[in-house]
Amino acid sequence: MNIDSQLSGDAERSDTRPILIIPYMWIGDFVRNHTVVRVLRERWPNRPVDLLTTSLCAPLVDYMPGVRAGIVWDLPRSRLAVRRQFGLAKLLRERNYGTALVLPRTWKAAIAPTLAGIPERVGWVGEFRFGLINRWRWGESKLPRFIDENAALARPDGAPLPAEWPVPQLRVPADEIARWREANGLSAGAAVALAPGSVGVSKRWTYYPEAARLLVERGFEVWVVGGTAEKALAQEIVAAAGPGVRDLTGNDLRNGVLAMAAAGVAITNDSGLMHIAAALGTPTMGIFGPTSPYLWAPLNGLAATVVQDKSVLSCQPCQRTVCKMNDHRCMRDIAASEVVGIAERVLGEAGGEG
């Protein structure tokens, strides 16, 4: 009998207590958290799984198979917000969770589950959370990737990591995509979605305007996708490439999800929208410079991992949010013509279907 069959024994299959996951709330990390959901559902098929979420990430929950509900509760990042913690604890207590997986290794993330009296509170050792976490896990620093650290908490203590984790999934109904296209006056043809934003300036490839111009010249419809922080970038891209480009940036993440679901190919930085597109199954090109694709690319796999094609720079991967050396060559050496050529190949391999 292998380890996975042992993990799915009769005792675990008969357990019906709800589980709460307290995830990291950055968009890309939130998407990757669906791997944790899938591991839990494999281990405990009869235990409902809920996700704590922010208002920003809440639309993602609607498209995550295996999630019963999202608990929308915004907590400020910069302060404790005691009253908000007690309010969240009251809500959690009413839902009778048997287990909470506290993925962030912070003191603040464990407060509400403790106040709610959730019997099992699983998390990594960190920030002197004694009394808050009561199912300690050790050895986080030995795990190679962020996804390994998170998904391991869903396995029994001491269980070996699997050869492969289940990949994140986002599923959008076809009729919802069709209604979104119609509402935005978009054709049914294949389009190239550009996601020029990211957290950290150093992760942003700077040649999106030129790439958009080349794509439009070659007959492609181009959409710029992102949040309100990307509005200025979208306007710059539209100005460079003309009316063949649509600015679809805005403050509703659901719009970004639907755009990525409808696109024929997505070109992105290392960002939340990269993880969204990959989880949707849209052919996704991730442009990497200061970050490592091994550590941060989607588990789903990318249609193309785009890196500068010269020898690896001595500073790579620096993981810095702002370039401190080599004048951002890790991104500047990736030409717009190269990216557009790869996009054409990817679209051709996908049959041009949106």
UniProtKB/TrEMBL annotation:
InterPro entries per record: Glyco_trans_9, LPS_LOS_Heptosyltrfase, RfaF
Example of a GO cellular component annotation carried by this entry: cytosol
Enzyme Commission identifier(s): 2.4.99.24
Coiled coil residues, start to end: none
Magnesium in keyword set: no
PANTHER family hit by this protein: ADP-HEPTOSE--LPS HEPTOSYLTRANSFERASE 2, TETRAACYLDISACCHARIDE 4'-KINASE-RELATED
Protein name: lipopolysaccharide heptosyltransferase II
